[in-house]
């Protein structure tokens, strides 16, 4: 894992945006895997600003978001799809038919997960996957457990993770759906290049365990140690225990 330190959120967002901009310039048909959460907001803001003055071009790119809540329609204010519309999609020139999302309303959950896996394959696989990090070491909605699912699947969200997602629901944890659809660990690890971003003191222990600890399903991000092309972009607080 290559570790890059940045003094603050602003530097982190710029460095992430530089990586995405360079990847798109080198490969205009780039297939991106994208996260939600507080961490990528600065990245999306910076990409929106660059798109506004023509410094980044998404016109031939494709995106696959990592996860979505079960039971929320795409236009629900708490949905990850709505988050992405507001923070990125409406500001850049992505073709609507190349924006891919898991459907949390799908009646046939297994079929929906298979459809997503097949769509990623059909697009040629993820070229660049941007990840956030849960305070308990989760990636996507792959929560710490004795066993992890490889492929896209339905997952139960841990109470701490529900609390960290409550902002999307007016701070009310009881309104956060208890389940999500998420890419699995193998889906994530098949990406050709992975960039994980983490900031703030709340991530410091998960960052330490991800980098220095054993590879264990009890800290899903530690499985990134198995991947040959991972960049970690950290602010000082998140890197404090390395
Ligand atoms: C959420 C998402 C993850 C995200 C993580 C960190 O629960 N499912 O994909 O990376 O938690 O979120 P944040 O960036 O807000 O700390």
Tell me the number of helical segments per DSSP (H or I, 4 or more residues long). Answer: 7
Compute the number of strand runs.
Answer: 10
Major beta sheet, strand line-up:
1-10-9-6-2-3-5
Q: Assign an overall shape.
A: globular
> What is the CA-CA span between the terminal residues?
13 Å
Proportion of residues in helical segments: 25-40%
Secondary structure class reads alpha/beta
Give the bound compounds.
2-amino-2-deoxy-6-O-phosphono-alpha-D-glucopyranose
Secondary-structure element order, N to C = EHEHEEHEHEEHEHEHE
What is the overall pLDDT average?
A: 97
Question: Which residues form runs of ≥5 with pLDDT under 50?
Answer: none
Using the CA coordinates, give the radius of gyration: 17 Å
Estimated share of beta-strand residues: 15-25%
Largest β sheet strand count, sense and barrel closure: 7 strands, parallel
Tell me about this structure.
The protein is α/β, with parallel strands linked by helices. Helix content is 30%, strand content 17%. It has helices at 9-26, 41-52, 80-87, 109-122, 159-164, 185-189, 204-212; strands at residues 2-6, 31-34, 62-65, 67-69, 99-100, 128-131, 153-156, 179-182, 193-198, 230-235. Helix 7 links the parallel strand 9 and strand 10 (230-235). Helix 1 crosses helix 2. The chain is globular. Bound molecules: 2-amino-2-deoxy-6-O-phosphono-alpha-D-glucopyranose.
